[in-house]
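Usage

Read records sequentially. Each one opens with the input sequence:
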Amino acid sequence: MNYIYDIYLNLNEILYDFFDWNKNDKLIHIKKIPIFKINEETLKLLIQNKVIIDENLLLQIYNKTEIWNKCDKISYCALFSDNNTALAIEFNKNGNSIKKSFLYIDEELEILEIINKLKEKNIDFNILNKEKIFLKTRKQLKEEKFIDNELKNIEDNKLNYIYFECFGKYEKNKKIILENINKISKNSKTYKNLYDILKLTSKANK
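and closes with the structure output:
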C-alpha cells in the first residue's frame, strides 16, 4: 500500500475548498495516510456523492491512518487522487463516507507529483445519494443569512436610512424598499455596503 506523510486535513460533512477553511475549523495533522490513484471520473463521483465502499477496501485502510496527536484517532480514512486533485475521505465502520477534505494547495501539488508514479486502481463503491455542494463560500452564506435576518424585523426609520445609503434617494413605500433591496446583486459593491451598514447598526453589536 502507498502512503502520504505529514499533511493537514479539514474533515467535515460538507466539503470545503481550502480557501474556504477558517480559524474555527479543527485541522487534523496527519502523520501517515494511505493513498489510491483512481481515474478522473471516479474521483468526480467521490466528490459529488455520499458513497459506500466495499468491505475489502474498508479492511485495507482500517487503522492505517496515523495522527500526530495521539489523543485523536481515525479508524477508516484514505486519500484518493487522479492526476489533478486529491481528496481525503473518512468512512464509518460500515463503509459509508461521512467526512471529506481537500488539501492545502502546496501539499496537494506535492502529492500530485507522487501520484504520477503510482498504478491506477479500480475501487468498488456504490452511490448512496448526492452531496450538498455550495457554490458560495461560508463567508458569503453567513453574510446573506445575516442580512436576511436583519431585514425581517428592521425598524422603518432604519430601513429608510439604509435605502437612501444604498440608492441615494428616498422611498416611502416599504414594500418597494424591500423589493429593491432584495434585487441588489450579491456580488455588487452596493450589497457589500448594505452588509456593512447593517453590521454597524445591528442590535447584536450593542
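Summary fields computed downstream for this record:
- The longest helix spans residues 138-152.
- The mean pLDDT is 90.
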